[in-house]
Specification:
The complex is a heterodimer of chains A (787) and B (783). Chain A is α+β, with helices and mostly antiparallel strands and 787 residues long. Chain A contains 23 helices and 16 strands. Chain A starts with a helix and ends with a helix. Chain B has 20 helices and 14 strands. In chain B, strand 10 and strand 11 form a beta hairpin. With 783 residues, chain B is an alpha+beta fold. The chains are: A alpha+beta (787), B alpha+beta (783). Chain B: Its EC number is 2.4.1.109.
């Protein structure tokens, strides 16, 4: 009695047991005579004869398998492993370590995108601000590894093939390599948690271990290995959570698995934005769960809401907070100005060390010495220098220049003054610059005026654009083409005065040419070399409003008292900075449309049409290519799934009751999950216009391999365990043989041209065999000579 | 009347009990049946209705309403149709194409020919001679004597007839006259539909045929229990015919094909379902084949026949020639290629030009500099560039690599021959090798090599590969022989791009070797044969030395396939930005319009924008419908049944079909990268008007005319009922119609382009700040 009392205590007060979600509660009622050994299980096992066919089907659709001949009870909630499996796992990890860490220190020079990610680690250590299209987590981890082993950030990772000096690059490569190793046991555990057999799980683990592409990718300072790891981790946690959910919701372990799923979702997302596909996978799965719950009318609306809110918190809020925390660490480290400044707004730049600006006077008046900044682009300050345009009027150039410099200083003068405007203002009381004022801008360094006339600008040679130049000479009061009219566009909400007159940093205004009617304008167009590649400034008659807005960044006036009001940029808060950076990342990412020599389109990936050349040096080569055996089997599994599932749907429509078979439902749920994962990690790439590479397929490949293993589990389900294991070992042997054949490309080992030509199994693989020596002996001769 | 008498009179009419949570689940379903039957009982008698309602639901009433709507539609669409007497917006294109039909000149356009053929027909009918070419927006029709009113009348008629078709769609779907009139008036009083159908544009035809397709399909569906009867076939074939017409009118008509395709798939899916209908597979196959024939094969034949007419009419050379393959061009009378293309013999001196950028292949004695600005080094060989002007440095001689007979046709250069090209001025051979080109590190450098130095013979060999998949021994011809020059050892294609080299090459265009030999922009042609091997003008060497070259023949299917492929490619290539192009997300809300025409002298303008009341109503209707469907799904998931079965079936099957029409005509635009305009939304707007009608019906009443499909002896008898929107329905629709009309009249000056508006009036007509109207008064600046 005490036993059954315990079980009852675990049961929620819910409507009488039926055939749906809580079917398992029926078990103790209908099987009072369950043997005491059951008490070690977390849940009594529903022997088939206790449930009718419908209930069995329902149980199978939730992943409970039929009872095996071995008498092993299926896992309920979380993960149940036997002692022997831990030993097996240990061996698998050892093998994975051997495969992934073998000669990790070779080559001792920069490989492929280590150019970027090594460089970014240097930026973190030097705390120099940079902008990249990927979120920071993986890069932070790499930096951590480098920092712990004494990387000082001096090495510049400039070119592929540059030999490392004073860089703990092995430690840095260890990070992706370790995560790559960790992916292997995760695949084992995931399949086990899904109640696949140990031999199937072993097959999956070894397929992933010997996948050349995953090996190559995880041996270098790249982001994809962390990405694949966190994807695998998320899938594992999610599967564990689903087990718990079928078992009993809202227990401590249920919450733990759910929270862990959320955290690792956040981690995937913080490695690369393609982590969104993992979010989508878990999201669809969640929606499906909730839909099932909604259909169970014994789940009260209140309980349903509880289910919903728990998932919303753990799978939406937790990942978002995690993601934002990564950025707060990112900002906390990158405190100083660096080469990413130019992407950010002036306010953002102001928060960076080295870009900090001293407070400046708030009031702008006739006679103020000011610097003007373009509002919409990050081109910088209105600038002039003693060089002339080679075209048009051949007068002195006006540009936008991103750095502070005395050539950015302009004197505001009254164009309607009677006498010499440069003296005139001194005789009057202070006149604040306001809307409608007609002014001249005198470049203080060269004493010329900002000028425009009916000449076409050097780059944007269109009718509605006028050239802007600096014109005049010392003592010349200027002509009417120097006159500009101030049009205030917008002030600052918190500074009332800024709407009425121009205030430093607070007022956006336009400058209209008094004679031509055009607006002072700049856009993201660079001048050629003669203009030092600074940004073009023109006077535009059809100006886009945003590109014709200017503001005063600094202002000083000799007649202002020293204690006059001062202002500075308002420092943006974390959220503002975070949001701004997201937008910059998005536009930069969308702008990556240039073709790369080794890019490829998604349709070529499942067929492994082409790899990526990572590194070629000294007659050795690293080329990213998958293990064709594993790769094609996984693709085959996808095709088989689609065909079989389609066929089953048609059969069902014709009244065949295939889905009454528990085996069909169980494997349908299993394979369907992996197929969904594959599709969501693969198909969206077809919509992307940016450059894509083979390694973008890796997360999808992970799902495809697991799908293949599920199919294997299904096909061999009627065989004796021993036979099944033998078949699995044959598959593994083939995979290892394939791996071995292409491994010189993964590790950059000695190879001859002949071996290389022979390894080109597919015509479209384009590793260059000409780089290898014709025979190894000449290589060793060479080495001997060098020694 | 199949209802049970037991429930009669127990409940007062129109007080239907909603889901009863207190009822035990066991008797729940039974209650639902009871309720539905009771419900049917209450509404199955039309007797207790007012006379007005009865009149409207009668045959005569319907005729009166639809006649009034149609008359009004004609009035609104023909009002001042002669204004403006100038070319407006895309009349530039479509007017021109009509003129080409009349003069039989070949033209090329991305849209299929039906609507343009109709314009051509209308133009011919009213006596247009095709001499005016609609060159610029604003050209006067009066001074050029163009009978443009006749041509504009065609879309106006089609646009007006769309209104009764919309009405009929709703009537056939089982809604009451009042609801049908509501949907029709959303189209009738819509400024965008009116503006679009008063001008020589394709959309009126597109929308008219699309609405007819929907109408025919609904008629077809109503015969679903009378399968394979005469009527069933008539409406199936009518659907296919109008579908083909829609597609043949404008390229986006293909969406209508997809949308009918989707509906048919749903339909067949039900036929396949053994539990629903219990049919055999043979039965399914016969249905499948009937639809494949009626909705795939038959429409395709119709579609093809329009192209057949198109090719039959356009027999003369015209502005579209250069888009087509040489073989195609030679079917057109008076084509330049037909008249001037000659066979090329070995040792001819020729000039060759790049097809896209029109530069000549050029070389001059200057060498490539040793080192470029980015520190890469060159071969320092002689420069090979692309040069825009004719000059003796463009002269090349075709040198054979095989032995030739002394004379005769054996000396003709043929497809896939391996040749060398000798630069006449410097006596060097064209060569490329594995050295990066000056501007593109990924491409190979082209240079030349002394003729007598055989050390690099292999690198001077090139294959002439004729484009358009020419047969192996096809002779190589000047002008018409589009070809690629493929380097034999490295398989790169001679290629150029519009970037110019620096001063050291006199800013000429870069020539380099593209490693992708299938690159489409690597096509060249022989501009001219300067001299033959004896340095003489080539004469009388052609195979077919006909006195006057007559056009050649080409099979219709080849022509069709070629044109279809080109239309597809050009359609995808329309990516340039246009000031009035807008993103699909803006369309349902009418965020932006298109300025069609302006007249500065009188401050008149035509601005394409919809009736804001109509469009926003449609959006609201759509969202309500999606809300109802969503709520119904969730309710049924929770075993609640708030909507009577007949009404739910109507909502899902009929309004759901309208939703598919809407979505299929709208969503694909999100995936397109070409320029998009608000008029691309008009078919979807029509669908959303249908949805708005049925949503209004749902809101007003939970009755419909049921059943509407024609029964047979075998169909299960169901209690019939009659739509009853009551007096409030009539009042709502009349009030709403007035509101629509007022809004229409308010925006009408922008639609009809008259009268001219003052700046203040323009500002007041600018209902949304995002509309970019002309002649707006400047806002007074408060300084």
């Amino acid at each position: 009695m005490s036993f059954s009392g315990n079980v009852r205590a675990r049961r929620p007060a819910s409507p009488p047991a039926g055939l749906g979600h809580h079917h398992h509660h029926q078990a103790p009622l209908t099987s009072p005579g369950t043997v005491p050994t059951m008490s070690t299980q977390r849940f009594p096992h529903p022997k088939e004869d206790h449930l009718d066919a419908d209930a069995r089907r329902a149980a199978a659709s939730k992943g409970f398998g039929p009872v095996r001949a071995s008498g092993k009870y299926f896992a309920s909630g979380g993960l149940n492993l036997t002692q022997g499996e831990y030993k097996l796992l240990f061996v698998i990890v050892l093998v994975a370590c051997a495969v992934r860490l073998f000669r990790l220190s070779k080559p001792n020079s920069v490989v492929f995108d280590e150019v970027h990610f090594g460089k970014f680690a240097g930026k973190y250590i030097k705390t120099r601000y940079y902008v990249d299209v990927h979120p920071p987590l993986a890069k932070l981890l790499i930096t951590l590894a480098g920092w712990l082993f004494g990387y000082n950030g001096d090495f510049d990772f400039k070119d592929i093939g540059k030999v490392y000096e004073n860089v703990p690059y092995v430690a840095m490569r260890m990070l992706p390599a370790t995560l790559g190793v960790a992916t292997v046991p995760l695949s084992y555990l995931t399949l086990r948690a899904l109640d696949c057999r140990a031999s199937t799980s072993l097959l999956a683990a070894l397929f992933i271990t010997f996948e050349n592409g995953l090996v190559t990718q995880s041996r270098h300072i790249l982001l994809d290995s962390p990405l694949v790891f966190f994807t695998a981790l998320t899938v594992f946690f999610w599967v564990g959570f689903c087990n718990e959910d079928k078992h009993k919701p809202f227990t401590n372990s249920w919450w733990t698995w759910l929270t862990l799923s959320g955290l690792s979702l956040g981690a995937v997302l913080s490695c690369k934005w393609v982590g969104l596909f993992t979010v989508a996978t878990v999201g669809f799965s969640t929606v499906y769960q909730l839909w099932i719950l909604l259909g169970d009318i014994r789940v009260s609306p209140r309980l349903w809401i509880k289910h919903f809110v728990a998932r919303a918190i753990c799978l939406i809020a937790v990942p978002v907070i995690f993601y934002m925390m990564m950025f707060s660490i990112h900002f906390a480290i990158l405190q100083n100005s660096g080469d990413g400044d130019g992407f950010m707004s002036s306010e953002f730049q102001h928060t960076l060390g080295g870009r900090h600006m001293a407070d400046t006077y708030a009031d702008v008046a006739i006679g103020s010495k000011v610097t003007l900044r373009h509002w919409n682009t990050q081109g910088g300050y209105l600038h002039s220098h003693p060089h002339n345009y080679p075209t048009g009027s051949k007068q002195q150039q006006i540009t936008l220049y991103p750095h502070r410099d005395h050539n950015n200083d302009w004197l505001l003068l009254n164009a309607t003054a009677d006498g010499d405007p440069s003296e005139d203002y001194k005789e009057h009381p202070l006149v604040y610059l306001a809307n409608g004022h007609r002014i001249k801008l005198r470049h203080t360094a060269t004493e010329k005026h900002l000028h425009s006339h009916d000449h076409r600008p050097p780059v944007s040679e269109v009718d509605f654009q006028n050239e802007v130049s600096a014109y005049g000479l010392k003592g010349f009061v200027g002509d009417a083409n120097d006159d500009w009219i101030v049009e205030i566009y917008e002030g600052d909400r918190r500074d009332k005065k800024s709407k009425e007159r121009v205030r430093t940093l607070r007022t956006k205004f336009r400058l209209k040419h008094a004679l031509q009617g055009c607006y002072l304008f700049s856009h993201k167009v660079k001048l050629p070399e003669w203009g030092f590649e600074q940004q073009e400034v023109t006077c535009n008659k059809n100006a886009v409003k945003d590109n014709s807005l200017w503001f005063v960044e600094t202002a000083q006036h000799e007649m202002l008292p020293a204690d006059a009001e001062k202002v500075n940029y308002r420092s943006p808060g974390f959220l503002a900075k975070f949001w701004e950076l997201q937008k910059v990342m998005w536009t930069t990412n969308a702008g990556l449309t240039d073709r790369h020599t080794y890019d490829s389109r998604p349709e070529s990936w499942p067929l492994l049409r082409r790899g990526i050349n990572f590194w070629v040096k000294d007659h050795h080569q690293i080329y990213l290519i998958g293990n064709p055996f594993v790769w094609y089997l996984s693709t085959l599994a996808i095709g088989a799934y689609v065909a079989v599932r389609g066929f089953l749907i048609l059969r069902q429509k014709r009244g065949y009751r295939d889905f009454d078979n528990t085996k069909v439902t169980r494997y349908d749920a299993l394979c369907g999950f992996f197929f969904m994962g594959w599709a969501l990690h693969y198909l969206p790439f077809f919509l992307m216009q940016r450059q894509l590479f083979l390694h973008h397929y890796f997360p999808a490949l992970y799902f495809a391999i697991l799908l293949f293993c599920s199919v294997f589990d299904l096909i061999t389900s009627t065989l004796r365990p021993r036979i099944r294991l033998q078949i699995a070992l044959v598959f593994i042997a083939f995979a290892i043989w394939n791996f071995y054949h292409l491994s010189p490309l993964a590790y950059g080992l000695d190879w001859t041209r002949g071996q290389c030509e022979k390894a080109k199994w597919v015509k479209t693989w384009d590793f260059s065999c000409n780089d290898f020596y014709t025979d190894v002996s000449s290589l060793s001769d060479l080495l001997r000579e060098n020694c | 009347m199949a209802s049970t008498s037991s429930s009669k009179g127990k409940t007062t009419p129109r007080l239907r009990k909603q889901g009863q949570p207190e009822a035990p689940p066991s008797s729940y379903e039974y209650d639902q049946v009871q309720e539905d039957e009771h419900h049917a009982d209450v509404y199955s008698s039309p007797r207790d209705r007012s006379g007005i309602e009865k009149f409207f639901e009668s045959q005569q009433g319907s005729v009166v309403v639809v006649s009034a709507l149609t008359a009004l539609a004609f009035a609104l669409r023909f009002y001042k149709i002669s204004h403006p007497d100038q070319v407006v917006f895309d009349e530039v294109h479509f007017g021109k194409f009509a003129a080409y039909y009349i003069t039989h000149q070949y033209y090329f356009d991305v849209h299929p020919p039906l609507a343009k053929l109709l314009f051509g027909l209308a133009g011919w009918f009213v006596g247009f001679d095709g001499s005016f070419l609609f060159e610029n927006i604003g050209d006067s029709y009066i001074t050029n004597n163009v009978p443009y009113v006749g041509m504009r009348a065609l879309p106006a008629v089609l646009g007006s007839l769309t209104v009764p078709v919309v009405y009929a769609i709703m009537k056939e779907s089982g809604y009451s006259t009042i609801i049908a009139a509501f949907s029709a008036s959303l189209i009738l009083f819509d400024n965008a539909h009116v503006a679009q159908s008063r001008l020589i544009l394709l959309d009126a035809a597109l929308i008219f045929f699309m609405s007819l397709t929907i109408y025919s399909y609904i008629r077809f569906r109503k015969f679903r229990y009378l399968e394979f009867t005469f009527d069933w076939w008539v409406w199936l074939l009518a659907t296919g015919f109008f579908m083909a017409c829609t597609w043949a009118s404008k390229v986006n008509g293909i969406l209508t094909v997809f949308c009918i395709g989707a509906a048919v798939l749903f339909d067949l899916w039900d036929v396949l379902d053994v539990r629903k209908e219990g049919h055999t597979m043979d039965y399914f196959y016969s249905h499948f084949l009937a639809r494949a024939g009626g909705l795939i094969l038959w429409p395709f034949i119709v579609y093809l026949s329009f192209f057949w007419i198109h090719f039959r009419v356009l027999t003369q050379s015209g502005p579209g020639d250069s888009f087509m393959s040489p073989a195609f061009q030679e079917t057109l009378a008076g084509n330049e290629l037909l008249l001037q293309s000659h066979d090329i013999y070995y040792y001819d001196i020729i000039t060759m030009r790049h097809k896209d950028t029109k530069v000549f292949l050029h070389s001059h004695p200057d060498k490539y500099p040793l080192q470029y600005e980015d520190n890469r080094v060159s071969s320092q060989g002689q420069q090979v560039t692309g040069y825009g002007h004719n000059d003796t440095n463009n002269h090349w001689r075709i040198v054979p690599t095989k032995s030739l007979p002394e004379t005769g046709r054996g000396r003709i250069v043929r497809n896939n021959d391996v040749v060398q090209l000798l630069h006449m001025a410097t006596n060097t051979l064209l060569l490329t090798h594995d050295v990066a080109s000056p501007l593109m590190p990924t491409n190979q450098e082209f240079t030349t090599w002394p003729k007598d130095d055989y050390s690099r013979h292999n690198d001077t060999l090139f294959t002439i590969q004729l484009a358009w998949d020419a047969p192996e021994n096809e002779p190589f011809k000047s002008k018409s022989g589009y070809f690629k020059l493929i380097h034999v050892p490295t398989r790169v294609a001679l290629w150029t791009h519009p970037k110019t080299l620096p001063d050291w090459a006199y800013k000429q265009q870069e020539i380099n070797g593209n490693k992708n030999p299938s690159e489409r922009s690597a096509i060249w042609y022989i501009e001219d044969i300067i001299a033959d091997q004896y340095g003489e003008e080539p004469i009388g060497r052609d195979e077919d030395s006909r006195p006057v070259k007559t056009p050649k023949r080409m099979s219709f299917f080849k022509k069709f396939a070629e044109l279809q492929l080109l239309m597809f490619q050009h359609n995808a290539g329309l990516t340039a930005s246009h000031p009035y192009a807008s993103g699909p997300i803006n369309w349902p809300f009418l965020i932006s319009g298109i300025s069609f025409w302006t007249d500065n002298a009188t401050n008149k303008q035509i601005y394409l924008t919809g009736n804001i009341v109509s469009w926003w109503t449609c959006v609201v209707g759509l969202s309500i419908f999606v809300g109802i469907i969503g709520a119904d799904l969730i309710a049924r998931r929770r075993a609640l049944d708030p909507i009577p079965d007949a009404v739910r079936n109507r909502l899902w099957n009929n309004t759901g079909f309208f939703l598919i029409v809407w979505a299929v005509h709208y969503v694909p635009f999100f995936l397109m990268n070409r320029q998009l305009f608000i008029h691309h939304y008009l078919p979807s707007h029509l669908a959303s008007a249908l949805i708005a009608g049925s949503v209004l019906n749902f809101v007003l009443s939970d009755t419909i005319n049921f059943p509407i499909s024609y029964p047979t002896s075998k169909t299960r008898l169901r209690p019939s009922q009659y739509a009853d929107v009551g007096f409030k329905g009539l009042a709502t629709v009349i009030a709403y119609g007035l509101l629509l009309f007022m809004m229409f009249v308010y925006i009408a000056p922008l639609t009809y382009g008259t009268p001219g508006l003052t700046g203040e009036q323009v500002n007041s007509k600018r209902l949304l700040s995002s509309w970019t109207l002309h002649f707006a008064a400047k806002k007074t600046h408060d300084a």
